[in-house]
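Q: I'm teaching a short session on how sequence maps to structure, and I want students to see two examples side by side rather than one. Could you give me a first protein with its sequence written out and its structure tokens following it? Keep the formatting plain so it prints cleanly on a handout.
A: Of course. Example one:
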Amino acid sequence: MRVFVTGASGFIGSAVVPELIGGGHQVVGLARSDASAQALIAAGAQAHRGSLEDPDSLRAGAAEADAVIHLAFIHDFSQFEANCEKDRQAIGILGSALAGSARPLIVTAGLGVQAPGRPATEEDAPIPSSAGFPRSVSEEAALSALALGTRVSVVRLPQVHDPNKQGLITFMIALAREKGLSAYVGDGGNRWPAVHVLDAAKLYRLALEKAATGVRYHAVAEEGVPLREIAEAIGRRVHVPVNSIATDEAARHFGWLGHFVTADLRASSALTREWLGWNPVHPGLISDLDRGRDSSPG
């Protein structure tokens, strides 16, 4: 298939592109800069100039593709809600371009699911964006595309990692270095799910080839890694002490991260593994934190 990939030169996209090419697909990646275009060409893909904020470039890329994988997201957390809205608009454009055809659209979303007392599953609905989880607009936009007759599915991502980058944890590493302390909140028993970037890339390829409609997939290799273990690994990595802080101190210490570091989320991928035959094989989060080196957030 000829696959149009947004975010193709980003952290996850840089793993998805070779996975798709290795699977026999032709990749056209959205590139907003010369550097991104050159990186895509070097990886064996074609470059399509444009951005999430350029509707015409999105329509044109989707119109010429057999399938679309939407990975791009603007990771400026100081403008988080605005960037979530831009993502909703981009998904709407892509979904409209594919509506009424058999061409699949795979949308990326977060694991904003509440399932108290058990791991969240693929069958759990997302927390509504109106209830204070802005990232859910991506999944809500996918549902709107489904209603238009688009062959859409959703991949929910946890903390995606390799030795050098680990999602939100990359920001926690920078903060620990800045403050000379790697902190967790309370007893640190709250958990974050995680997946290695190469395992996530394989899931996207399998989801593309399955091309199911209206399905949610969980790219989860580890159901939940305790925040205390994450903080301890960060402490080892940047050689700073590790300590607990009180819940009412989280916002002051962590800033915008305070909302995330107090969240407790476990997520299962049992159905995804059954549906796709997906079997994560790459190192876990703590192993990558112990093996890696610091990288810039973003």
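Q: Perfect. Now a second example for contrast.
A: Example two:
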Amino acid sequence: MTRFIVLAAFLSSIARKLHTFGRGWIKEARWDMHSWYRTMAYNFMLVMTNTGMRPPEARNLRWRDVDTLADKHGGKFVTLAVRGKDKFRTLVAPHSVAAYLDRIRSLSKATKPDDYVFTTHKGKSAKALYRSLIQSLLKESELLLSSSGKRRSTYCFRHTYATFRLTEGVDVYFLAKQMGTSVLMIEKHYGHITPVKNADRILQGLPGWEPIADGPGDILGSVNADGAGKKPAKPRTKK
């Protein structure tokens, strides 16, 4: 349990530091185009951390692939129809992602349905996905290297997404579907997430246990521009 608490706190502190530093990093741009690219890279990072997309899927994303829907309670969420090399799938994201995409749209010269979402200043597909800018942001914020000494990249945002979702109790089967991978791969890479955190899901239906449903439209633990997400509610038992 202690290991889980340390891990969650560590990831939250990294997310907060990166987002806080990122806002100042944009303001420090020396010229307009530099500011444009930093703003795009920053919002790209927010989209990636809140969707779990693979970089190739983000590269292929077009505006026609983005939609906003509502659940039966009226809670809004974003859907993204993504594609990699040969596979297609639809993933869901918190409504905050709509705001990040709106910022990108307001900056972009390519906003028609068939245009790519992540582009260069000229409106062409950003094939490198702001790689050098992301590396610069990670380096300047002193987050380029992990605790093991491994260099972080745009793929680390997918790892952050998976870890936060698991620590918030998302079922591994649903997470595997969302991320376009297998349950086996999720368990292999994220087996350190302790069952104690997910007690309310594991004990659901057993005598003396009353599970708490998430609120309408709530997607807990999302990473946003103001922090790493909400704290999960504690399970309550019947008296």
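Q: What should students look for in example two?
A: Point them to this: Confidence is low (pLDDT under 50) at residues 1-8, 211-223, 226-239. Also worth mentioning: The beta strands are 66-70, 76-83, 88-94, 209-210, 236-237.
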